[in-house]
Amino acid sequence: MGSTINSQHVEDEGHVVLFPFMSKGHSIPLLHLSRLFLARRLRVTIFTTPANRPFVNQSLADTSASVISLPFPQSISPKIPAGIESTDKLPSIDLFFTFALTTGHMQPDFERALQTLPRVSFMVSDAFLWWTLDSADKLGFPRFVFYGCGNYAMSVSKVVAENRLLQGPESDDELITVTRFPWIKITRKDFDEAFTKDDHDQPSQASEFNMKAVVATIRSFGMISNSFYELEPVFTDYWNSECEPKVWCVGPLCQVAQDEPHDDHHDKPIWIEWLDEKLEEGSWVLYVAFGTQAELSAEQLQEIAKGLENSNINFLWVIRSKGSEETAGWDINGFEERVNGRGMVVKEWVDQRRILMHESVKGFVSHCGWNSVLESICAGVPILAWPMMAEQPLNARMVVEEIKVGLRVETCDGSVKGFVKSEGLEKMVKELMEGEKGEEVRKKVKEFAELANKAVKEGGSSWLTLQSLIDETTLSSKKLDDESGSHNE
Ligand SMILES: O=c1ccn([C@@H]2O[C@H](COP(=O)(O)OP(=O)(O)O[C@H]3O[C@H](CO)[C@@H](O)[C@H](O)[C@H]3O)[C@@H](O)[C@H]2O)c(=O)[nH]1
Predict the structure, then answer these.
(1) Atom 18 in ligand 1: which residue has the minimum CA distance?
(2) Residue 142 in domain
(3) How many domains does the chain have?
(4) pLDDT score of 446 more than 80
(5) Is there a domain that residue 76 lies in?
(6) Which of 38, 176, 188, 463 is in Cβ range 3.0-4.6 Å of 172 for a Cys bridge?
(7) EC number(s) of the enzyme (predicted)?
(8) What ipTM is given for this predicted complex?
(9) Is residue 5 part of a domain?
(10) How far is 98 from 96, CA to CA, in rounded Å?
């Protein structure tokens, strides 16, 4: 799947337009998906914005994908600082909905650009770019919605919303049975406050945005899920028998990168060298990282440092590069000196998948962003689940309670997104790396790693699903061409 695709080899079997949402967690999987389309001989055009273009270009440098950037309409929302075109660069995640709603102003430019392209067979655009459905409708091609999350989170959220389950209990921590899946219990805290505290007389930006995304999803041709059937069959079957539109599981998309070669002589960051040393010593390493969006307070960072230091476990901790202000207020240098040799702190962008695949890495403290969950599963590394926002609490339930490939960090008040004291982290880190429960989840995650690998190989469930998606859409597009007598350029 990770083979080099160059323009000479691509035959024009159809043309797909991709429009990823402007955040790393949403763009990375769609960039992987574009490689799969290229490998199936489709022409690929990707839309982005000027500030995101270098990342897209770099990710697809060895391919024939065309990249088009449209201006980001920053002037519409002066609260968004000039030059910020990605949610992971926003000064605060509180600006998320302003940012997401602003993207709607890109529609006229998007449609003008689409009109200059060869006939489009179909489009895949992020669920957060709801307005792209209208553009596809106007220009007469089907739109697939890309949801960055898994089918468990999608299905549970749908059942909870439809049955108004969050409105019942008095306390935010009270367990609520998810009626359609009665073995699953959630709390109000598993969901973002933006959605649970809405005032009906004055709908929030969050509910306005949510409504637009949901309505556009229902009207779309299909949904593309970064998951594989064997990971969550109950929830995929539920969706495809009781909900619309159909979901097509074509993941885990991170597997696309599995065969990408690393030039170890010229491309070996110090943290990989450090992991190599640990492997030579025969020591295991815990990887600690919380994705590209999570905002941790200085106090929380301090407790993490203390917990890791006291655990006596080797660790590699990646702190978001944006966060120099996040690390203010605690003595990171003193900490690094004290754990020298046993722990490493990195404040740069890393190749997370490469770290997880390293043989020395045997555990992952993760916020349970869906990409991190999949990357950990594919690498056969068990997770210490520490959800922080968005659908991460549901992903954490899936990881710990449903497929049992991880344990949960201990919050000091027992609540889903509560503060974690150093003792709660230390205890669970030791359990994950050295305890019996850790051993059980390590065994289980390796079973899923094998299933993930099979799913994307030729003849596997995701491989076949992708083929049927392409067949269905490109055949109908060709039929339209034949009927109208037009041709692809
Ligand atoms: O230094 C870094 C930091 C991140 N990553 C990659 O960036 C992605 C991060 O994605 P994810 O783990 O899903 O975390 P978020 O960035 O927090 O993702 C957002 O998007 C996800 C997909 O919709 C949601 O599941 C999350 O809740 C939401 O916060 C992963 O592929 C990581 O491998 C790197 O490669 N290097």
Answers:
(1) 25
(2) yes
(3) 2
(4) yes
(5) yes
(6) 188
(7) 2.4.1.-
(8) 0.99
(9) no
(10) 6
